[in-house]
């Protein structure tokens, strides 16, 4: 929904945009390498630049766009890329543009072959490589391109764009709902738009609760309950109640742990107890990350609180 069409539609990365505008207007576009996390506007930026560079009817003959669904072996470099770069255009003197989206999926061999193709056709072809992980692009390719890092978007950058979409699509949203979307999408604009759209479609009104429910994230009230059970109930009932809630709402233990961890920082525990609890939670997280059983790790999380409660009791005068 609402993909940016022109460079002006793109928020953020003003410095990158103005640099590219300058290259274009001075007719000095170098080979480009865009990198950064998902949903930060890399693909949108190069497509909008291409739309500015070429008229619609010449677009297909001047721009070759390869993305993840295309093959990424050496054959694609020797085949489509080479033949596109090596044929000269009769219409226009300017250069052609090859966009290699998700270039980090290219094999080493393909990257090496590409480096030679880039060298050979620099006169009439420009390349734009796009990737999430710069380290997966071989140094020889990196050094032939001007690099641009697309960082995660800040809330200040995301909110106006979200508001624009909200207005256009007539979406009913509360300020808390907006805050929840921004928090959950962690700088990924695509994710924020997806959450906005799916919550609005599934629940009509976008609120903090509907956003959290729609994304399968624990609500703040769920987390407050979980902490309350851990601190005040005996082991078995705390464990069973959390398990029941977790199953009912389809929550992931990892999400629960992340939120519980935040709360532990806010609750007023004596320092020694807080430290011991945090270390235990970190251990649970570590084990979860290596793919262990959620049930066993859940009991371990509940046990961590039980152990801490015993400390509190023994410390009391
Ligand atoms: N800077 C931005 N300004 C406006 N919209 C943006 C911006 N970044 C992302 N978006 C929105 O997010 C969607 C995804 O952006 P885009 O495809 O450009 O991201 P990307 O950086 O290429 O991500 P990926 O690494 O996953 O390919 C776009 O359709 C657009 O709606
Ligand atoms: Mg992309």
TrEMBL record:
It is found in: Nucleus. SMART domains: AAA. GO terms for biological process: DNA repair; DNA-templated DNA replication. It comes from the Eukaryota. InterPro entries: AAA+_ATPase, ATPase_AAA_core, DNA_pol3_clamp-load_cplx_C, DNA_Rep/Repair_Clamp_Loader, P-loop_NTPase, Rep_factorC_C, RFC_lid. Its main location: nucleus. The keyword ATP-binding applies. Keywords: ATP-binding, DNA replication, Nucleotide-binding, Nucleus. One of its GO terms (molecular function) is ATP binding. GO terms for cellular component: DNA replication factor C complex; nucleus. Residues 28-156 form the AAA+ ATPase domain. Belongs to the activator 1 small subunits family. NCBIfam families: PRK00440.1. This is Activator 1 subunit 5. It comes from Astatotilapia calliptera (Eastern happy). The gene is RFC5.
């Amino acid at each position: 929904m609402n993909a940016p069409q022109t460079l002006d539609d793109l928020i953020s990365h003003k410095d990158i945009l103005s640099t590219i505008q300058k290259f274009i207007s001075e007719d000095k576009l170098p080979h480009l390498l865009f990198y950064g996390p998902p949903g930060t506007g890399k693909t949108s930026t190069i497509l909008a630049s291409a739309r500015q560079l070429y008229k619609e009817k010449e677009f297909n003959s001047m721009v070759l766009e390869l993305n993840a669904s295309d093959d990424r072996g050496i054959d694609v470099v020797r085949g489509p890329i080479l033949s596109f770069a090596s044929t000269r255009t009769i219409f226009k003197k300017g250069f052609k543009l090859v966009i290699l989206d998700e270039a980090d999926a290219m094999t080493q061999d393909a990257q090496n072959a590409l480096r030679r193709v880039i060298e050979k056709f620099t006169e009439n072809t420009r390349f734009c490589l796009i990737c999430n992980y710069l380290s997966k692009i071989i140094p020889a390719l990196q050094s032939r391109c001007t690099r641009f890092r697309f960082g995660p978007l800040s809330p200040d950058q995301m909110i106006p764009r979200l508001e624009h979409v909200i207005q256009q699509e007539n979406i009913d949203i509360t300020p808390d709902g907006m805050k929840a979307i921004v928090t959950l999408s962690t700088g990924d604009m695509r994710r924020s738009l997806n959450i906005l759209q799916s919550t609005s479609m599934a629940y009509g009104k976008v609120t903090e609760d509907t956003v959290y429910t729609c994304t399968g994230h624990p609500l703040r009230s769920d987390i407050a309950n979980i902490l309350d059970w851990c601190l005040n109930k005996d082991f078995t009932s705390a464990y069973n109640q959390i398990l029941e809630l977790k199953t009912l709402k389809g929550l992931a233990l990892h999400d629960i742990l992340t939120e519980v961890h935040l709360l532990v920082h806010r609750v007023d525990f004596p320092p020694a107890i807080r430290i011991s609890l945090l270390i235990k939670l970190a251990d649970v997280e570590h084990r979860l990350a290596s793919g262990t059983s959620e049930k066993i790790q859940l009991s371990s999380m509940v046990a961590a609180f039980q152990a801490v409660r015993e400390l509190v009791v023994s410390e009391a005068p």
